[in-house]
Amino acid sequence: MNASGWSAAELVGKAVLECGSGAGRFTEVLCETGAQVTSVDISSAVHANAASNGHFPRLRLVQASIYALPFPEESFDFLFCCGVIQHTPDVEKTFKTLFRYLRPGGRFCIDVYAAIVAYPHPRQLLRPITKHVPPAKLYALVEKAVPKLLPLSMKLSAVPWAGQCLARLIPVANHRYLGVTDRETARSWSVLDTFDWLSPRYEKPQTRRRLERWTQELGLREVSIERHRGLYVIRGVK
Length: 238
Known about the structure:
Blueprint: H1 8-11, E1 15-19, H2 25-32, E2 36-41, H3 45-53, E3 59-63, E4 76-81, H4 91-98, E5 102-113, H5 123-130, H6 135-157, H7 163-167, H8 183-198, H9 208-217, E6 221-228, E7 231-237
Parallel strand pairs: 1-2, 1-4, 2-3, 4-5
Antiparallel strand pairs: 5-7, 6-7
Helix pairs in contact: 6-8
């Protein structure tokens, strides 16, 4: 959420569309601001999100495809979509479809894997196999592997100068750079993100030039495209 540049005060009472919410890690943060959050995911992860965040009175959870959202166009003040569009069949179509639901003057934050940077990652060697494993079985395997691999990844990431590169040798998500200190939170986030690395059928990183072209074609304003590790974060105003 820090990557969005939004403050909690800006979101109070505003209509926020969160696309690809998964189990709801960011949903909770959005709801805590007092926003009216509509959180969408195509998978059954919406049930896990409901179990975690269903107590928020201003949360609406919907299971639907980004390509067929059941909402009026231009009905949201904020658009948030992180960890999603690179895993869709047509990334350009996905990116442009999202903006149909954002009001003119509305603000957005979308991220996508950065081309070239994302390619030399150990998940690229594993995904041709793991994407064919049934999700429930793969999730169970990830849950078993993370407690064994994460401590090693954390130790490697602490090595001066070379830590970030060394940690990439271990195929497990490591959130050391976020300053996560609670072990259970670190383990939980690692399980979710490692599963996200290995399970999707599609993974299509994008170049900065292509993202710039899309934002220009949509006539978006105040656009910034920043690389955060292996991601491009695109922010601006419709």
